[in-house]
Amino acid sequence: MLKVGVIGVGHLGTNHARVYHELPGVRLVGVMDVDEQRAAAVAQRYGVSAWADLSACLSMVDAVSVAVPTTVHYPVVRECLMAGVHVLVEKPIASTVEEAQAMVDLARRRNRVLQVGHIERFNPVLDEIRPFIHHPAFIECHRLSPFQPRGTDVDVVLDLMIHDLDIVRSFDLGAVKHVQASGITVLSSTIDFANARLEFESGCVANMTASRISTGRLRKLRLFQPELYLSIDYHARSGRMSRRVVSSEGALSSVETIPIQADTEEPLKRELRAFVRSVEDGAPVVVPGEEGVAALQLAQDILALIRTSKVFSKRQAAPHSIPSAHMRI
Question: Are 175 and 201 in contact (CB under 8 A)?
């Protein structure tokens, strides 16, 4: 039985603990958090240990989920790998590309699994559409959320857009040849709204919008390619596919629209099950550290463009204040 632990039991880490507790063939041994009361509460819920320090944790487990703030991913993951423990680290893989690459290199040297928690890769609706994706010409992604103070320690590109950067990269479109980007801080001290336009080696163009100042929540992808249009809603795990139907003479006779409905299995359960398979059976890692590095590099390129733009520079020079609680956003 694989012995696992969770380091960091905030919103994400608590869910990791829950799923590990439910997975067959896995034993959740304990949890750890700088907030000892929170760690104790989660530990009590599942009847496991609440560790006071990292060395105590690593002496008792085969694998861990690391769900601490991004700024401390590198030192925590490094210590785990040095102890010979397999790691699933939440996205983004690290604060800097240099730290991320060092993690990948160390995992390779220690022959340990390093998986990155790009959870949207495990959304079952993607399994439904992947077989139909061939030579897309244009992809549009929207990932919008209402404002919440949680998560604003990082820019929206690293918080939300990075999911879509990782997914679109997984469509085998070739290298990114050109990037345009714009963004702005609105309610926090980091970038709250961002738009990026990516041109790939294949000729495909992807337009991505990420916002955490929206009035509602939206998680959508639209994809256009010869003779096919796909639209999916990640949250609903559904969508539709429209494709042209031709006559025997080759003329357009009609457009067929097919609804898409994926199963309802929780993506996090699929993600952690894949991690366990990679550790126990040597199955290929679905989102290896190298892909986490590539997504982070692209995100950092986008952020660099935003921060050097005239609009962003002017906004930064203006007085910054948080609107009062009664204002509608």
Answer: yes
**Among candidate residues 141, 256, 162, the one with its CA nearest the CA of residue 204:** 141
* 141 neighbors 207 (Cβ within 8 angstroms): yes
| Cα 186 to the center of its chain, rounded Å | 23
The class level of CATH for 2-112 reads alpha beta
Place of tokens 């060092």: 102
The answer to whether the beta carbons of residues 274 and 286 sit under 8 Å apart is yes
The single residue listed with the structure tokens 């390093």 is 114
pLDDT at residue 329, as a whole number: 28
CA distances from 45 to 18, 21, 30, 38, 41 (A): 9, 10, 11, 11, 6
Looking at this protein, which amino acid is placed at residue 234?
Answer: Y
Query: Hey, where are the domains in the chain?
Result: 2-112, 121-265+296-317
Task: Estimate to the nearest angstrom the gap between the alpha carbon of 184 and the chain centroid.
Answer: 21
pLDDT tens track for 59-89: 999 999 999 999 999 999 999 999 999 999 9
pTM of the entire predicted model = 0.90
The values of phi and psi at residue 225, to 5°, are: -150, 165
Tell me which CATH code domain 121-265+296-317 carries.
3.30.360.10
Label residue 321 by pLDDT band (50, 70, 90): very low
Cβ-Cβ contacts under 8 Å for 66 (sequence gap 6 or more): 7, 8, 73, 76, 77, 80, 87, 88, 89, 90
The string of pLDDT tens digits covering residues 90-115 is 999 999 999 999 999 999 999 999 99
